[in-house]
């Protein structure tokens, strides 16, 4: 029985993780749940799963949740909040495995604390790896703590890497669906609305990652995540546009063999893989190979998707540039969703913030968060 701490339990990945727990009650149980602002869902989950601790974003929300748990007769559940709360979840003595699925850098401290506490981490939160990958992977190596990727592309790479040696890898190929605007004329990009950008052709996900997929910044974050998770330079990571999202990624070996991972477009599969590794439990997440007709692979268009180019540049520079890329994007995506800037304003904002970013390499989580705050301030100043 693996006892789980789920950070971001009310989100898309968090809920998919809970559905895996539901499906495999003999393998997994819930020790800790960390949510943000969705108290209704946090309450329903806590009443259903009876964890040891549940955390929400603020003290006020924690008071509300505690009162409602009392009303519901659910006793024995500690209610925590804020960063202390997420850290209490990720380091709980009864947690054997931590699913890191809070969106943005809000999940960073708890993920770092989990690694320092020696807890294996299933990592969905790519922003953590982008902002502080150098620190997180060093801590994981030092403590011999596994970080298992849940992001479907990195999960696929992890699977393809199991059959070869690191020194035998020529390229990691990350597949990208290309998002909803793969074929949109470049002149139309400025008038893309939030509603259009929120319609992803193949995946149902949270709002930020859906917009990031439409700009392809998401793929850029994944390039950086791949460099850190698999310890390769950006020159060994390539992106290929594969609209069917059937091949989740590939690894090309030096002898010329290319291994690909194919499965349904359902995040429950990479979650199950991460939770069960190195085992492969039987599941009903089957893929109908007989129905497969096309597998297209095209080079990415850096002119249409300047965010991808900016991410490769940040990957080369590392450190503060990766932090600023993520922070500026988060601020710009919010502004786009609030209709304060056009779709093309997202890349413009990131480019301008990066132009003012120093080439430094923060060495601690506190320094990473300070750099993150400064980049956000620079982005907000540009947008006001
Ligand atoms: N969805 C996917 O298919 C997918 C695929 C690959 C990678 N990922 C990555 O997985 C992560 C989560 O994505 P998602 O799609 O699940 O996002 P989502 O649906 O927006 O969920 C985000 C989660 O983070 C929580 N949260 C936000 N701010 C918080 C805070 N300050 N403190 C504590 N919790 C907070 C939210 O809580 P409330 O809702 O309660 O506010 C929610 O549980 C992201 O890093 C994303 O890039 C997602």
Polypeptide structure, described:
The structure is a single chain. With 384 residues, the chain is of the alpha/beta class. It is built from 15 helices and eleven strands. The strands form two sheets. A seven-stranded parallel β-sheet has the order 4-3-2-1-5-6-7, sandwiched between helices. It has a four-stranded mixed β-sheet with strand order 9-8-10-11, covered by helices on one side. It is globular. Bound molecules: NADP nicotinamide-adenine-dinucleotide phosphate. NADP nicotinamide-adenine-dinucleotide phosphate binds at residues 8-14, 34-38, 57, 86, 101-103, 106, 124-127, 151, 203, 205-206, 209, 267. NADP nicotinamide-adenine-dinucleotide phosphate (NAP) binds next to helix 1 and helix 6. Residues 147-230 form the 1-deoxy-D-xylulose 5-phosphate reductoisomerase C-terminal domain. Residues 263-377 form the DXP reductoisomerase C-terminal domain. InterPro entries: DXP_reductoisomerase, DXP_reductoisomerase_C, DXP_reductoisomerase_N, DXPR_C, DXPR_C_sf, NAD(P)-bd_dom_sf. NADPH binds at residues 10-13, 36-38, 125, 127, 206.
Mean pLDDT: 97
Distance between the termini: 51 Å
Please estimate the helix content.
40-55%
Order of neighbouring strands in the sheet with most strands: 4-3-2-1-5-6-7
Could you describe the largest sheet, including whether it forms a barrel? 7 strands, parallel
How many runs of DSSP E, i.e. beta strands? 11
SSE topology string: EHEHEHEHEHEHEHEHHHEEEHHHHH
Helix/strand structural class:
alpha/beta
Poorly predicted residue ranges: none
Keywords: Isoprene biosynthesis, Magnesium, Manganese, Metal-binding, NADP, Oxidoreductase
Family: Belongs to the DXR family.
Domain 1-deoxy-D-xylulose 5-phosphate reductoisomerase C-terminal: 147-230
GO biological process, one term: isopentenyl diphosphate biosynthetic process, methylerythritol 4-phosphate pathway involved in terpenoid biosynthetic process
């Amino acid at each position: 029985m693996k006892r789980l701490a789920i950070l971001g339990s009310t989100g898309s990945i968090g809920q998919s993780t809970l559905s895996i727990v539901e499906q495999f009650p003999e393998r997994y149980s819930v020790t800790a749940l960390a949510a943000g602002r969705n108290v209704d869902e946090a309450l329903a989950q806590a009443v259903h799963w009876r964890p040891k601790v549940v955390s929400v974003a603020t003290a006020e929300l924690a008071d509300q949740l505690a009162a409602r748990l009392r009303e519901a007769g659910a006793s024995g559940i500690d209610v925590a909040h804020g960063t202390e709360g997420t850290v209490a979840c990720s380091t709980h003595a009864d947690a054997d495995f931590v699913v890191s699925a809070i969106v943005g850098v809000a999940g960073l401290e708890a993920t770092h604390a989990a690694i320092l506490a020696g807890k294996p981490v299933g990592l969905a939160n790519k922003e953590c790896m982008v902002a502080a990958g150098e620190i997180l992977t060093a801590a994981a190596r030092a403590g011999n703590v596994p970080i298992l990727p849940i992001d479907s592309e990195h999960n696929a790479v992890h699977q393809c890497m199991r059959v070869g040696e690191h020194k035998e890898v020529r390229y990691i190929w990350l597949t990208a669906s290309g998002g909803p605007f793969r074929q949109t004329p470049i002149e139309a990009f400025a008038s893309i609305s939030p509603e259009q950008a929120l319609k992803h052709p193949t995946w149902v996900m949270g709002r930020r990652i859906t917009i990031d997929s439409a700009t392809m910044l998401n793929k850029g974050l994944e390039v950086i995540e791949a460099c850190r998770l698999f310890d390769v330079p950006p020159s060994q990571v390539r992106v290929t546009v594969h609209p069917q999202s059937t091949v989740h990624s590939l690894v090309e070996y030096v002898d010329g063999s290319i291994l690909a991972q194919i499965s349904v477009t359902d995040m429950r599969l990479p979650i199950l893989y991460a939770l069960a590794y190195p085992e492969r439990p039987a599941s009903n997440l089957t893929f109908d190979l007989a129905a497969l007709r096309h597998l297209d692979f095209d080079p990415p268009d850096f002119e249409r998707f300047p965010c991808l180019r900016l991410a490769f540049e940040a990957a080369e520079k590392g450190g503060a540039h990766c932090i600023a890329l993520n922070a500026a994007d988060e601020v710009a995506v919010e502004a786009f969703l609030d209709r304060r800037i056009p779709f093309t304003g997202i890349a413009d904002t990131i480019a301008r913030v990066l132009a003012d970013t120093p080439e430094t390499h923060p060495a601690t989580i506190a320094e990473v968060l300070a750099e993150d705050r400064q980049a956000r301030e620079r982005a907000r100043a540009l947008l006001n």
